[in-house]
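Design job #97: recover the sequence.
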């Protein structure tokens, strides 16, 4: 067993005084030596944490001992070092930001798509009456996606509801939704059902579980993850790289943040262009006076930034604007 592990999990389960729970949960995580990011909301938990195998075992045991979270499933990765630097546990309105906050309309504990285990998803995905739907953000599916999957041009999951009309032509098909760990599919599939789609499924455990249990067959590229690993391999059966360098077009699976903190855009960039542009997306950003030092990773620890009031279009960051 590796010295360190990274745990990916979520659980939709009501939490009373969720804000107070978040504060106490942060203390507990720190006390056992974990690092990572956890979102706590009235509707449940969503997190990725990392630490020694002993600390991760203690965490899973504590979560399962709480009857509210006893059903929680953990995706476990053995890693060479912790996947985070600090421990954060924050209270938010949702455990994954969708804008769908009315529990009378969208409540994964009451209605969601039929869960498909990885081997069943693999068996169904190529049928003529099936559509595979990627519910992740564009920067995620540009790095890797299932072969023949329908992808949406969305910067964040909260943009998903506005795309429902574009999917209306598939209402007579079986819709197989997928995301990184399963959490987005809970609400995406529930919304599809609410909007009149009759036959909706979701990949149970998401891409990560599919890679572990089905070998990742037909998942093209790498899977984006919300920690300092940035991307992980999924496919051990028929792997292929589909992403290209934004600057030169060369095939690459390396995704970074622009070194200019006022841009901070997610994009794929090969090592050569990374060296030439010092981890920036353009020469304009390279010349910015606040440009961060590029160490070859393109991953930066979050530091307080002044508000840029002129910035019209917000950029997604590696600092977990969405947690999967």
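Job complete. Output follows.
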């Amino acid at each position: 067993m590796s010295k360190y592990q990274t745990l990916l999990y979520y659980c939709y389960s009501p939490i009373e005084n969720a804000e107070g729970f978040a504060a106490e949960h942060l203390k507990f995580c720190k006390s056992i030596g974990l690092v990572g990011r956890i979102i706590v909301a009235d509707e449940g938990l969503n997190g990725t944490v990392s630490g020694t195998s002993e600390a991760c075992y203690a965490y899973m045991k504590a979560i399962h001992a709480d009857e509210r979270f006893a059903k929680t499933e953990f995706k476990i990765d053995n890693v060479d070092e912790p996947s985070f630097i600090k421990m954060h546990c924050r209270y938010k309105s949702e455990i994954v930001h969708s804008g769908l906050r009315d529990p009378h309309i969208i409540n994964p504990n009451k209605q969601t798509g039929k869960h498909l285990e990885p081997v069943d998803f693999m068996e169904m995905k190529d049928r003529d009456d099936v559509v595979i739907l990627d519910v992740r953000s564009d920067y995620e599916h540009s790095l890797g996606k299932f072969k023949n999957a329908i992808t949406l041009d969305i910067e964040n999951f909260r943009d998903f509801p506005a795309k429902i009309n574009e999917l209306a032509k598939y209402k007579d098909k079986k819709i197989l939704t997928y995301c990184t760990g399963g959490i987005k599919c809970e609400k995406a599939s529930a919304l599809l059902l609410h909007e009149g789609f009759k036959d909706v499924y979701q990949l149970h455990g998401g891409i990560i579980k599919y890679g572990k249990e089905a070998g990742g067959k037909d998942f093209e590229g790498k899977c984006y993850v919300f920690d300092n690993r940035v991307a992980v391999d999924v496919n051990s059966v028929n792997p292929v790289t589909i992403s290209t360098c934004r600057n030169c077009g060369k095939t690459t699976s390396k995704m970074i943040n622009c070194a200019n903190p006022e841009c901070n855009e997610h994009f794929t960039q090969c090592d050569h262009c990374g060296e030439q542009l010092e981890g920036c997306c353009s020469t304009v950003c390279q010349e910015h006076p606040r440009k961060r030092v590029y160490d070859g990773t393109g991953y930066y620890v979050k530091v307080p930034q002044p508000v840029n009031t002129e910035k019209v279009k917000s950029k997604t960051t590696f600092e977990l604007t969405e947690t999967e």
